[in-house]
Design brief:
Largest sheet: 8 strands, antiparallel, barrel
Number of strands: 8
Structural class: alpha+beta
Number of helices: 7
CATH architecture of the largest domain: Beta Barrel
Distance between the termini: 43 Å
Strand order of the largest sheet: 1-2-3-4-5-6-7-8
CATH topology of the largest domain: Lipocalin
Strand content: 25-35%
Shape: globular
Number of domains: 2
Length: 229
Amino acid sequence: MQESFYKTLGQKLKASRKMKGITLAELAEAVHRSPASLSKYENGEVNIAIDALVEICTALNVDISELLPATYVDLKNADILKYEKHLIDRLYIYWYNGEEKRVKNAMIENSHPSMKSKIYFVTDAENSEYQSDFIYHGTVSYSDTSITFYYTNEAPPFDKVFIRMPLLFQKGRRQKGIMSCISLYYQGITLKILVSREPLTVTDEIRNELLMTPEEIKELKRTNMLIIK
């Protein structure tokens, strides 16, 4: 097994632990292991044994399958067969927060055998793609024109997120989409987003691309609909 596998696994464990508000010391006591050993697991410095992984996932109340790569494909699943060439394991999304005056981001991970999906909100890409403020669980579905995600936050504020984007045909191409969720003040909002198969460097060009264009504002006034072009 590659070293990167255990590093990624450790990052996911750390993100799940932090989201649960559990300290290393508390987890160590629950699984009867030292905080130092758990820290090495999380940093990918030591390969974690399957029995230790089961104990940790049980203590964190995390489904172990969410942390591991998919190992099968349901060949009877019509959607998987129909949209096989469009299936994407990982996506990066970006949006502009006008109140904070900065571009924010998230990372999506999909498991296509189960069509389950997770989104790591506001990731710290410089340190770890899995270090995030919130982790939402949900599903992904494909159609002839778009990819749709529906997520639920399993921790406060327990809100839901809906994301819709066009099918991504080319690897180097980014697409626009929409994300509906709630604001910091629990107001329903819809955001214009950029979607990419690979992480983007946030530049003025990216920022400007995320701003509402005069044409989009004009269409909003004309149709009373937010139409992202």
